[in-house]
Amino acid sequence: MTLPETMRAIEISEPGGPEVLTPATRPVPQPGPGQILIRSAYAGVNRPDALQRAGSYNPPPGASDLPGLEAAGEVAAVGPDVSGWRVGDAVCALLPGGGYAEYVVTPAAHALPVPKGMTLREAACLPETFFTVWSNVFMRGGLRAGERFLVHGGSSGIGTTAIQLARHFGARVFATAGSDDKCAACLRLGAERAINYRDEDFVEILRAEGGADLILDMVGGSYLPRNVKALADDGRLVQIAFLQGPKVDLNFAQVMTRRLTITGSTLRPQSDLAKARIAEALRARVWPLLEAGRVAPVMDSEFPLEEAAAAHARMESSGHVGKIVLRIS
Ligand SMILES: NC(=O)c1ccc[n+]([C@@H]2O[C@H](COP(=O)([O-])OP(=O)(O)OC[C@H]3O[C@@H](n4cnc5c(N)ncnc54)[C@H](OP(=O)(O)O)[C@@H]3O)[C@@H](O)[C@H]2O)c1
């Protein structure tokens, strides 16, 4: 494959709102040892991209300064010491950054084949949410069949993935969302109870069921003490974001007396090896479900790469259900 010297990309001209996402021309990156270069057809849009754009989620050392944590396309070049990938393979991958561009490099161990029967558009929406949900709900949270699982933001990219996977692996799923339409979407995906948090109290509803064994939360703030109340004895709370802020008054006595676990993680700063282990687990446990059509990404909308600002505005309006993608080629 002949590679051009430059490519179209979207850069963050300065920290700010969606309007700071600016079309630019950048050199095509070169894959280093253990890396592949992907010519992207689509890139997924995620809430952490908006945090980076606003200046509160900096790329880790060595990562591209361009936003974008996931993409799908074809392998355009292979660096030294890479096995298992050849130029022309259809691929989707978790990225350390740089997804809002025609070409992007990433460790080969963070790439996965496009599931059979799936379009590149759908495959571009898999990595960030599936790596996050698998590592937090199943590896860290230890969700088991028969347990009561509560996910906040049930209609988000993360939420729609968590509902489907938890249901598939036999958990009883409860989800919160901010409108009746979003609640209906959560029920269609397999939640047994969707809670419109504007009208109903998730604490009361979960306590009436015996409490949640596991909660996946991205809201934080006032939800922290309420999550603790909503947990069953021995319950686990996994925190993946703090949309309402990370600081709160919390009485930890309940954590001790009811043997609760409060934990959390962010994906991006983890080591290459840790991400490779998540990729291996996804390939073995989840990719067969995607190929069988038993789990699928929920697609909200598509924007051309050059309209990344409009894609961010849609995400931040919270009008969406599921994933937003950028069309690159
Ligand atoms: N830790 C990690 O490694 C990691 C990785 C990826 C994403 N994340 C985080 O996970 C969250 C979801 O990501 P995403 O890409 O799926 O984003 P998304 O689709 O934009 O989802 C965010 C959801 O949060 C809900 N929400 C927003 N503000 C809220 C508030 N103040 N109170 C209650 N709910 C609120 C919205 O639903 P309603 O309209 O129903 O309120 C929205 O659906 C983000 O916060 C993101 O930063 C963490």
Automatic annotation (TrEMBL):
<feature type="domain" description="Enoyl reductase (ER)">
    <location>
        <begin position="16"/>
        <end position="326"/>
    </location>
</feature>
<dbReference type="Pfam" id="PF00107">
    <property type="entry name" value="ADH_zinc_N"/>
</dbReference>
<dbReference type="GO" id="GO:0070402">
    <property type="term" value="F:NADPH binding"/>
</dbReference>
<dbReference type="Pfam" id="PF08240">
    <property type="entry name" value="ADH_N"/>
</dbReference>
<protein>
    <submittedName>
        <fullName>Putative NAD(P)H quinone oxidoreductase, PIG3 family</fullName>
    </submittedName>
</protein>
<dbReference type="InterPro" id="IPR013154">
    <property type="entry name" value="ADH-like_N"/>
</dbReference>
<dbReference type="InterPro" id="IPR014189">
    <property type="entry name" value="Quinone_OxRdtase_PIG3"/>
</dbReference>
<dbReference type="InterPro" id="IPR011032">
    <property type="entry name" value="GroES-like_sf"/>
</dbReference>
<dbReference type="GO" id="GO:0016651">
    <property type="term" value="F:oxidoreductase activity, acting on NAD(P)H"/>
</dbReference>
<dbReference type="InterPro" id="IPR020843">
    <property type="entry name" value="ER"/>
</dbReference>
<dbReference type="InterPro" id="IPR036291">
    <property type="entry name" value="NAD(P)-bd_dom_sf"/>
</dbReference>
<dbReference type="InterPro" id="IPR013149">
    <property type="entry name" value="ADH-like_C"/>
</dbReference>
<keyword id="KW-0560">Oxidoreductase</keyword>
<keyword id="KW-0521">NADP</keyword>
